[in-house]
Structure formats: structure tokens, C-alpha cells
């Protein structure tokens, strides 16, 4: 059922907002409501294209006055719940970046994506703890934990490096929060994602970094077993400056796919090493010698080029995903994964990744936050690329078979940013946190959002 807002009420909202205010049927409504993950067709009752914090406040107050849920969107990579009948706040115009070199920090708007922040910090000899995709929103990434595939094992989670935030809470108030000001809320948003309001600005640490030794090596599917054996030997002895992952890839026969990878199963090993290039080359020598490479891009590279390591898709695409945290990835787990998703398996999964964790990712931060499950050694993540929305049930069983095959090594938990569209039930969301952390998050939710207006997400309901 579509919730229809009276045009007079929309007019009053529009008079308080500098950006566009659009309802179903308006010409620009489809473009303003589109998200990067095309598994959903968004149908909010109204979308506000926020140009400022004041616009966000007006939209949130309107939602509260009309008892409507709020859906905040920056890039839409993490869109998993339909915004039907909600007030959508589109933050994509909030893209300011200020780099403060003396304090090694940056203040960013709510919709800044990774690559512009990387590019802004690079001339100052600094870098953010960015993820594998260049066009993911930094705020959502950091508030969900923020797993950096290049810097995480050395510096920890991105959420550990958030200094302060400006957030519009469900009462429409703008609050500047940090460890000394509303510390419970500051604790909760760093790990609890968008359950507590709309973060319009974030102040976060940068680290000294300009170059690394990294890239990817693609191997043909017939070499999967020796390649994974070499991967496991390397992670067993890797320093925390080295981060590895591999992915089973089934790429289509399309012009934008490199010819050696088209329409075949390949193993993509990803490498990021923060030490001297010569030492990095020595570390991966055994891996390189395992089998002939179809493509090998591992070399000294600027931090501005880290998107080339994982080569995540840049264009919007419907993705149906699965994830799990693993305590270990021994030989038996390797074989189980090959059996269910390897070159001879019949699966629609286009990408299945095992990513190394550990190092600084396993340590508690100096300022506590809600990011938990730090004891995992690896993460399973993958998915199928659909042709459009509405295919979740088609892919549910084959994706569940992959996570099920690795269940003996699962910790029983997931990382908040890698919860998927299959993880919407309360018990599934709770698996992203330790029990005490989840209970405290619900208490903070009760204090700031007792009506649960911010529920178009992996929802943390208020404590009752």
C-alpha cells in the first residue's frame, strides 16, 4: 500500500527545505530515490534532497510529526529494506571534505565517498582507512565498523578512528557528539550504523600513508587447490602489515571484463603490504610460483590506486549476498568451499571471498565503541549478481549452501556492514554484536528513538 502525503503538507515541507522535495509521480522522483544496490525499487512517500543540515532537520521533523519512518541514503550500497511509505533523506549533495594536516584528520559531509577522500588526503601524505570499493559512502562504512582491506590489520577498524560526529536525532535536533559529549550516543553510532539518526558530518583520523605494495593475481580454476594451499601457508605466517584475501570469480563474457577472465572460473588473490616492496615481493614469492598467472598486477602502487586491488564493480547492480565470520580457514574448510563453490560446482554465485582478519582488527580501541566480534580470523562474503530486483528467493538456497558448507568454522556471528538482505530478522541483526553490546544498543535506541523511526535498515529496536 502506498502512503500518500497531502500536497499542501508537501508544500509546507518544501518551503522549509532548499533542496528538492519530491513525491511519487514527480518527474525527478525515480532519479532521486535510486540506490546503488538495485535489488530494491524504492517508493518512499516523499524524498528530500538535502543540501544542508537544516534540510535534514526539516525532513526528520516532518517524519516525526507524521509518524513516518526515515530512510537516509548517501550512495545506497547498503540498501536492504524497502523505503515504501517512508520519508527518504537523500544526502548525496553533502560532499564537503576538509583535511587538517597538523591533526591528521578530515571532516567530511554525509555523502562523501572513499575515492574523493583518498584523493584529498594523498597530497598531504595521509590516507583514510578505506574499504575495497572506491564509491562506498565513508560515513555508512565507518559507522558499520569499516573493514579496510589495506590498512585494517595494521590500524584496526575505521570506526575506531572516528573522533566526532554531527547527527540529527529523531527529535530533529542537531547534536555534536564525541567521547565527552553524549558519550552513550557516540559509542552507539560507531558500530550501530544508522539506527540513531542522520549523521551529516564526521571527523575521523587519517594515517601517514602514500604507497604500498599491492594488487591482484588471477589464476585459472584448475589450479585452485595449490593456490589456496599457498594462500593458507602465507596467512599463517603473515605480519600485520600484510593483508590477503582470495575470491572465486565467475565473470561474464562481456567487453568490460579482461579477455583472459571471460566466461570462466578464476581465483583472484588480493595482496596489500605496507612494508618495503622488496619484502612484499619476497613474502608472496611462493604464492606467485604456485601456478601460471592469467593476470598479475601486484607491484608498488600509490594509495590512490587501491581500488584496483579488489576491482569491485563501479556501476549500480542488483547484488544478493551472504556473509559469515570464521574462526579459522584450515584445509578442511578449503575443501568444503571448493566442493560447494569451486570450478566444478553448479552455483549462481559470481563472487565468493575469504578475507583475512586479525592483527589490529582483533584489538579493542582506545575509545570504546559498539564494533564487536573482533576475535574472528577470516570473513566469508559473496553473492550473486541478478538481472533486476525481486530475485532474493531465487538465490537464497544456493547462497545459504555456501555459508552452510563453512558452518563448522563459523563463529556464529557477522560483521555489521556485511549483514545482507537475508539478515533482517532481529536475531540475525543481533549476531553482529556481543549480547551485552546489543542490549546496550537497544537501551541507547530507547533513549533517542523510542518510536523506532529509524527502522529502514538492519534494525536495532528500542529496549522495551
TrEMBL record:
Its cofactor is FAD. Transmembrane segments: none annotated. Coiled coil: none annotated. The keyword Oxidoreductase applies. Residues 40-209 form the FAD-binding PCMH-type domain. It comes from the Bacteria. GO terms for molecular function: FAD binding; oxidoreductase activity. The keyword Cytoplasm does not apply. Pfam families: BBE (PF08031), FAD_binding_4 (PF01565). SUPFAM superfamilies: FAD-binding/transporter-associated domain-like. Keywords: FAD, Flavoprotein, Oxidoreductase. InterPro entries: BBE, FAD-bd_PCMH, FAD-bd_PCMH-like_sf, FAD-bd_PCMH_sub1, FAD-bd_PCMH_sub2, FAD-linked_Oxidoreductase, Oxid_FAD_bind_N, Oxy_OxRdtase_FAD_BS. Belongs to the oxygen-dependent FAD-linked oxidoreductase family. This is FAD/FMN-containing dehydrogenase.
Amino acid at each position: 500500500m502506498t502512503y500518500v502525503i497531502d500536497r499542501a503538507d508537501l508544500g509546507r515541507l518544501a518551503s522549509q527545505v532548499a533542496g528538492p522535495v519530491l513525491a511519487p509521480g514527480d518527474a525527478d522522483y525515480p532519479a532521486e530515490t535510486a540506490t546503488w544496490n538495485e535489488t530494491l525499487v524504492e517508493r518512499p512517500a516523499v524524498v528530500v534532497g538535502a543540501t544542508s543540515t537544516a534540510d535534514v532537520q526539516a525532513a526528520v521533523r516532518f517524519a516525526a510529526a507524521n509518524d513516518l519512518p526515515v530512510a537516509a541514503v548517501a550512495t545506497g550500497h547498503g540498501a536492504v529494506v524497502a523505503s515504501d511509505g517512508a520519508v527518504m533523506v537523500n544526502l548525496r549533495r553533502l560532499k564537503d571534505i576538509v583535511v587538517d594536516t597538523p591533526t591528521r584528520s578530515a571532516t567530511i559531509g554525509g555523502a562523501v565517498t572513499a575515492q574523493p577522500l583518498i584523493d584529498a588526503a594523498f597530497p598531504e601524505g595521509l590516507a583514510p582507512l578505506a574499504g575495497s570499493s572506491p564509491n562506498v559512502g565513508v560515513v555508512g562504512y565507518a559507522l558499520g565498523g569499516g573493514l579496510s582491506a589495506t590498512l585494517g590489520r595494521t590500524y584496526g577498524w575505521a570506526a575506531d578512528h572516528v573522533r566526532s560526529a554531527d547527527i540529527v536525532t529523531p527529535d530533529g535536533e542537531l547534536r555534536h557528539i564525541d567521547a565527552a559529549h553524549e558519550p552513550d550516543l557516540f559509542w552507539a553510532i560507531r558500530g550501530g550504523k544508522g539506527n540513531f539518526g542522520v549523521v551529516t558530518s564526521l571527523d575521523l583520523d587519517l594515517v601517514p600513508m602514500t604507497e604500498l605494495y599491492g594488487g591482484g593475481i588471477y589464476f585459472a580454476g584448475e589450479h585452485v587447490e595449490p593456490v589456496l594451499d599457498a594462500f593458507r601457508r602465507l596467512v599463517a605466517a603473515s605480519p600485520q602489515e600484510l593483508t590477503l584475501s582470495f575470491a572465486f570469480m565467475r565473470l561474464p563474457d562481456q567487453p568490460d571484463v579482461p579477455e583472459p577472465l571471460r566466461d570462466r572460473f578464476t581465483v583472484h588473490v588480493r595482496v596489500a603490504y605496507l612494508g618495503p616492496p622488496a619484502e612484499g615481493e619476497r613474502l608472496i614469492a611462493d604464492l606467485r610460483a604456485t601456478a601460471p598467472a592469467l593476470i598479475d598486477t601486484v607491484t608498488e602502487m600509490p594509495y590512490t590506486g587501491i581500488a584496483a586491488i579488489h576491482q569491485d564493480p563501479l556501476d549500480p547492480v542488483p547484488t544478493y549476498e551472504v556473509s559469515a565470520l570464521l574462526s579459522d580457514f584450515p584445509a578442511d574448510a578449503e575443501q568444503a568451499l571448493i566442493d560447494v563453490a569451486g570450478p566444478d560446482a553448479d552455483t549462481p554465485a559470481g563472487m565468493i571471498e575469504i578475507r583475512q582478519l586479525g592483527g589490529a582488527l582483533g584489538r579493542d580501541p582506545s575509545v570504546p565503541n559498539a564494533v564487536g566480534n573482533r576475535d574472528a580470523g577470516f570473513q566469508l562474503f559473496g553473492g550473486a549478481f541478478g538481472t533486476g530486483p525481486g530475485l532474493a528467493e531465487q538465490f537464497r538456497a544456493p547462497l545459504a549452501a555456501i555459508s552452510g558448507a563453512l558452518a563448522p568454522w563459523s563463529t556464529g556471528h557477522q560483521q555489521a556492514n556485511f549483514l545482507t538482505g537475508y539478515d533482517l530478522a532481529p536475531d540475525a541483526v543481533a549476531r553482529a554484536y556481543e549480547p551485552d553490546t546489543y542490549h546496550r544498543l537497544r537501551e541507547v535506541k530507547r533513549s533517542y528513538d523510542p518510536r523506532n523511526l529509524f527502522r529502514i535498515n538492519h534494525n536495532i529496536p528500542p529496549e522495551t
